[in-house]
Specification:
- The protein is an alpha+beta fold and 474 residues long.
- The chain is built from seven helices and 23 strands.
- Strands 3, 5, 9, 10, 12 and 13 form a six-stranded mixed beta sheet that branches. A five-stranded antiparallel beta sheet has the order 7-4-11-6-8. The protein has a four-stranded antiparallel beta sheet with strand order 14-23-17-20, with no helix packed on it.
- α1 crosses α4, α3 runs antiparallel to α4 and α6 crosses α7.
- The longest helix has 12 residues.
- The radius of gyration is 23 Å and the shape is globular.
């Protein structure tokens, strides 16, 4: 056996080229890499040592019909050709994609590799990527990562495709999808399948009651196309609860065992699609798959809590001009997304008990937005998710920040728009009435091709600070 001083994960990478081809700007506060002593065998081979790790953790996505089919790892030849790339991606924690750090609560279905696995892959490549004897292969002791298979009890799709408007770069469109059920049911899992991935920025699934039917009929096809424009919300009054959504990197979701989201006969799902059209523009027939259980199964009823925080991102230091004026930014989102968008930045400050003075020290290189939400009832929180756009640097969700019993729930130290997720805690978290949940987002305006003052906006080139929590009311 030998000891290898292994380069492990950069929590904050300086000047590293990402898998998506974008280059990080150098960060003055970049931390040194974590170094650990890992005990490894003397003679590492693919079949005996590297293959069990790769097949348990990588092949599920890097195979035909999966999200990374363009870079297959299903044969020995595939792996040998990609060996150097595999090493680069695992030592920088780009692959397997798992943005949360270990500082937050333990999470289910953790896709990250252990320190020992990272060290072994790196050493195997450095030693020449020897193949060894195929008969020495023994599958990993654990099952590794699996994409959940959602049973298609109900598949919801438009009757005809929708083609986004020619004049728009960011098109928000809502579509009514009637629920063909005759009795109350529980949604126990779902999978969203974007038809044209290059256009799909995100999707949100809302449930509306039967009394919304008239309002939907007035809006649907009003401009001769399926659905209706819906910046800032779905534009339907009355009850409109969201039970889930999709963004790039989000896998099919199954709610925790013994839980589900209740739906009723006569309700409809309104699918809000955000299409970003900078790359592609073509007819879309995305669809939503639901896994259902009878309401007689007496599952615990899931509720989704959401949070939004102010977005006040100044220009990078040294950049001046009219594009760096906040009022110009507000006028811009109003022109693009409607009059209500002009009021959103100030409304978010008010909702979070803040003012512009709260963010007077913000720098474009590290702009912060946060909001506190006191729990109105005793809750059991089962999981959480965050959402930002392409300027995002980091995301955190905390419980009772600054107190002796403070707890970091979800920590994403290196935000990647292309790998977002819904994360379920390994153990449910009890939150008492009056406990404070804080969401914090950090952005780097140097990532923009054309930096300007940025406020909350609907487009991909704008920004958001949004979080959601899957919970049970105690």
């Amino acid at each position: 056996m030998r000891l290898l001083i292994a380069l492990l994960i950069w929590l904050v990478g300086a000047g590293i080229v990402h898998a998506h081809g974008t280059e990080d700007h150098e960060d003055d506060e970049a931390e040194a890499p974590v170094i650990a002593e890992i005990e490894l065998p003397e003679h590492l081979t693919y079949h005996e040592h590297a293959r069990p790790i790769i097949e348990a953790n990588c092949v599920v996505c890097h195979s035909d019909g999966q999200i990374a089919a363009y870079a297959p790892l299903t044969s020995t030849e595939d792996v040998v050709l990609a060996a150097e790339d595999i090493k680069f991606h695992v030592i920088n924690a780009y692959m397997p994609p798992w943005p949360p750090s270990r500082e937050g609560l333990p999470l289910q279905n953790d896709r990250s590799l252990s320190d020992a696995d990272i060290a072994l892959i790196a050493a195997w490549v450095d030693d020449g990527a020897a193949l060894g004897n195929p008969e020495s292969y023994v599958p990993a002791a654990t099952d590794g990562f699996h994409i959940p298979e959602i049973r298609a009890d109900l598949s919801l799709q438009l009757d005809e495709p929708y083609t986004p408007a020619e004049e728009l770069l960011d098109d928000y469109r809502c579509f009514a999808l009637p629920l063909d059920i005759s009795e109350p049911m529980f949604v126990t899992g779902y999978e969203f399948v974007p038809d044209v991935a290059e256009m799909a920025h995100h999707a949100i699934f809302y449930v509306v009651d039967a009394d919304s039917e008239r309002a939907i009929q007035q809006r649907d096809y009003a401009d001769g196309k399926p659905g209706w424009p819906c910046y800032g919300g779905i534009g339907i009054r009355g009850r409109r609860d969201s039970f889930g959504g999709w963004a790039p990197g989000v896998m099919p979701l199954r709610f925790p065992a013994g839980t589900g989201y209740r739906i009723e006969s006569g309700q409809q799902i309104v699918l809000q699609m955000h299409y970003n059209l900078s790359i592609n523009r073509q007819p879309d027939l995305s669809h939503l798959i639901l896994e259902l259980e009878s309401a007689e199964s007496e599952l615990a009823e899931i509720m989704i809590l959401s949070m939004s925080a102010p977005v006040e991102i100044p220009c990078p230091t040294g950049l001046e001009g009219p594009q760096c004026d906040r009022q110009s930014a507000i006028e811009r989102v109003g022109d693009l997304y409607g009059q209500d968008a002009r009021y959103t930045p100030d409304y978010l400050l008010y909702e979070c008990g803040q003012s512009l003075a709260t963010y007077a020290e913000n720098r474009g290189e590290a702009a912060i937005g946060y909001c506190d939400m006191p729990a109105r009832n005793s809750l059991t929180i089962l999981g959480a998710a965050g959402h930002m756009h392409e300027l995002g640097s980091s995301f955190q969700l905390e419980l009772n920040p600054g107190d002796d019993d403070s707890l970091l729930l979800l920590d994403i130290p290196r935000w990647d728009f292309h790998w977002q997720g819904d994360y379920q805690f390994a153990e449910p978290l009890n939150v008492a009435r009056g406990d404070v949940l804080r969401m914090t987002c950090v952005w780097d305006n140097r990532k923009s091709d054309e930096p300007r003052y940025v406020v909350w906006g609907e487009g991909t080139a704008d920004e958001m600070c949004f979080g959601s929590m899957m919970a049970l009311r105690n």
